[in-house]
Amino acid sequence: MTQLPPQPISPLDGRYRPAVEGLGDFLSEAGLNRARVHVEVEWLAYLTSHSLLGSAPLADGELAELRAWAADFGQAEIDRLAEIEATTQHDVKAVEYLVREQLSRQGLDRIAELTHVCCTSEDINNLSYALTVKQAIDEVWLPKLEAVIVELARQAEQYRELPMMSRTHGQPATPTTLGKELAVFVYRLSRQVAAIGRNEYLGKFSGATGTFAAHLAADPTVDWQRVSQEFVEGLGLDWNPLTTQIESHDWQAELYRRVAHANRILHNLATDIWSYISIGYFRQIPVAGATGSSTMPHKVNPIRFENAEANLELSNAILDSLAETLVTSRWQRDLTDSSAQRNIGVGLGHSVLALDNIRRGLGQIDAAPDVLAADLDANWEVLGEAIQTVIRAEVTAGRSTISDPYAALKELTRGRRIGQAELVEFVSALEIGQDAKDRLLALTPATYIGDAAKLLDRLA
User: Is-catalytic flag, 428?
Assistant: First the structure.
């Protein structure tokens, strides 16, 4: 067998790369290393600008050049890091040496020993992960989710007043509108967006076991807790003052649980839309040149929603595992989190892929009003709820003496298909007030939708 050229194992880096490539800027190894370089450089900038540990402020041009180098982190730095790490066998140490090389090129050897000073590797790593995960959520995942919400909201408004048979337990039930049912998902997902927006991104910067011991040994006159807080918050993160060697990762567990919750709502959406397509409530818009089935030319398969289901399940398998694994560390440090965190991008990647499929799938469906109307007209028995409720109100008001109206409607409608004529006959013979009778006789399954259309105003 001929050996293939090197190939990606993950479909996220192969077949589906265009849909998820934005995550690579943040949650790849290169993205992590770029963040590490940024943190190391900003620590040098903080130390020198505050004249700590015997340093003096850098000239404006020197600092600007150093920051520009960090911001322009690219292929040359990626390649050089690989060379250094081949010797160090330690990724963060390789980053330190890379920064030292840049200092030397700039003639800043005088501050070389400040590189990584008072830091354990986890001081750099936890801040780098917090920065990259925050950027991945804010710049990639949330915009993808919000695009789905926008499309759902558009369709909810479009179908605000389009009557639809409800199906509770899979059986015909009190009608609703298609727009209101889509609005339910808009509301649910919007709540998760708000919750994720409140998520903290915690960072620690306190040394080998979180005690500032090396810092105080180097200079006991400095308020290192204040320095740590200022530095972490200066990076745009939330400061965690009480940690072991590692930041405890609780914020990550909270975030991944929230993303997983959003995924589960999206999974519910995908299965509902798939089911509506199955019974004809939605028609799929054929894509020119696309094949629905290899043997049945008539088919347009709902593959976008099926693909989304699978990827949401894969995403949650990883995110749930991360949420469970990352909150535990033996005593002051072990490395179980190190390998786990390298899969954050995989977990979020499958969610991003699912979001892409859902958005595209929503753009390839149209409601079928004729099918919806026919289904409503075939199920007049759903008005049984309205009739027995009105009778109860009439009995309470003293305008009727009917006993057990629920039982009467149950006998008429349960397990039976009845039409308009049977219901009109039944209502006409009821001992109720004329206004109530007129309201019931005017009802149809298509008009028995309550405030379904008005409920969309709650999304504003």
Answer: no
Out of 49, 293, 338, 428, pick the active-site residue: 293
Mean pLDDT of 204-211: 97
| DSSP summary character for residue 221 | T
Torsion of CA 114, 116, 120, 125, to 10 degrees: 150
Q: Which of 169, 294, 298, 403 is catalytic?
A: 169
Phi-psi region at 249: left, alpha or beta (left = phi > 0; alpha = psi -120 to 50): left
Length of the chain: 460
CA 280 to chain centre: 29
Output the DSSP codes for 314-372: HHHHHHHHHHHHTT--STT--SHHHHHHTTHHHHHHHHHHHHHHHHHHHTTEEE-HHHH
Q: What is d(CA 445, CA 95) in angstroms, rounded to the nearest whole number?
A: 68
CATH level 3 topology of 122-373: Fumarase C; Chain A, domain 2 (1.20.200)
* CATH classification number, 380-444, choose in 3.40.190.10, 1.10.40.30, 3.10.105.10, 2.40.50.220: 1.10.40.30
> Hey, where are the domains in the chain?
19-119, 122-373, 380-444
Q: Report the predicted TM-score, pTM, of the whole model to 2 decimal places.
A: 0.94
Give rounded-to-5 percent helix, strand, coil for the chain.
Answer: 65, 5, 30
CATH 1.10.275.10 applies to domain 19-119: yes
Does residue 293 have an active-site annotation? yes
Torsion, Cα 403 404 405 408, to 10 degrees, reads -100
Q: Which two tokens stand for residue 295?
A: 């043997």
What pLDDT was estimated at residue 280? 97
Res 6: pLDDT: 86
Q: Whole-angstrom Cα distance, residue 35 to residue 23? A: 14
Alpha-carbon distance of 247 to 238, in angstroms, equals: 11
CB 157 within 8 A of CB 179: yes
pLDDT at 372 over 70: yes
| CA dist., res. 233 & res. 246, Å (int) | 17
pLDDT digits (tens, 9 = 90+) for 170-198: 999 999 999 999 999 999 999 999 999 99
Bridge partners (DSSP) of residue 171 are 168
